[in-house]
Request: fold
Amino acid sequence: MSAHQLVLILDFGSQYTQLIARRIRELGVYCEIHPCTLAPRSFDNIVGIVLSGGPSSVYDHDAPPFDDGWLRAGVPVLGICYGMQLLTHRQGGQVRPVGAREYGPADVEVSGGALFAGLTGSLPVWMSHADQVAEMPPGFVVVAATETCPIAAFENATARQFGIQFHPEVTHTRDGVRMLANFVTGVCGARGDWSMAGFVAEQVERIRTQVGDGEVICALSGGVDSSVTAAILQVALGSRLHCIFVDNGLLRKGERESVRAEFGDFDLTVVEATERFLTALSGVSEPERKRKIIGEVFIRIFEEEARRYSGAQWLAQGTLYPDVIESISFRGPSATIKSHHNVGGLPPDMKMTLIEPLRELFKDEVRQLGRELGLSEGRISRQPFPGPGLAVRCLGDLTPQRLHTLREADAIVQEELEPLQLGLWQGFAVLLPVKSVGVMGDNRTYEEVCAIRCVHSTDGMTASVADVPMSALTRIANRIINEVRGINRVVYDVSTKPPATIEWE
Reply:
């Protein structure tokens, strides 16, 4: 991606860092997230630097390391939250704890500055901090304040350094994208040369260079990510692409038949592996172990299938940027949220080399890419389905009977939600290893609980609870209890992400 102008994001552990990247890319500007430990080096194409937020205090003995050389790189710098405090601390200002941690909405009064070009008066923003700037470094001036934070934003126009205590990247900050645009296009002068149309050409060239004359196995599940991966590989490799669909017994109802019908024009092999997966998962209830076991069994199957194609050494999969972010703490102090089966769950001794053309993209970018490649809107707009499948929606032990129960309940959820056209990111059923007492036909029952999860999102990194009509939820619950053996109670999950994740495991 070196041909593109680059905004470099140095991450100090904020769970919002990936949102900064998304917002900047939405402006048509390419950006990359790197750990805050990255040593200053030459980036011929760099036009600006963003210092992210983070959970630490600049005075902590184990505060994230940072090389001040980045502040002398000769390009504009924007510090967000912790990043603003770091700019202050490293350049002669003072940072102090606030009386109580400020987390939530606030109104900021704007008094000028390049970041707020075109914005005036009082603006709603989202605060999340325990420290704040008490005394600015030399050369800086205040450009925004709140009732409790008198230095909510500052700038040094000469040095082209800017700091904001709130988070412009989250939707709660109403004009946050405008502020980021003022920095990226206004201050940094980025021309906006990042697009999915250009990405296709670049990736096709990269894939051909990477693979040479080799054969590639593609893990095709039928979901958005693997479908787009297969489509771009087909453009690059043609007949040297071999798609493998594995029925692991953890699929939704009718999934195998649907994939076979929709991808009939591909070189597609369907592998029946239900018994193999369920045997490996027998007695395993801990979610991280589930993911790692599933990841390893998938790889072993792909290695076996590769032998049928002149020993193909390449395995393509639809890994996305959020998968990497949540699976691996590659960004210095960031926490590992969960190990995705196709990232943190991969066995260390796998014999194939990965090819992941979507690894730099967020989900909304993948959907744009699918449109560029001519995939159907039905395929592109499909709800995400986790790689480990129902294994992370069937909490506790995975038995054929429990998986069947969940599969039937989920089919009812899908059938009832579809005509409502709620624009959901995801809507699905979860089977809980919790039993409750019920009454059916004058008899006592003691059966498991089914949870319904429906959320809105754009990239899967944050999610809000969908306002599903109570009449619909009641209808879904009645159908599940009456039609699916083993469930006598249905609940609705009203948790946002964060603090919860979308999937239950």
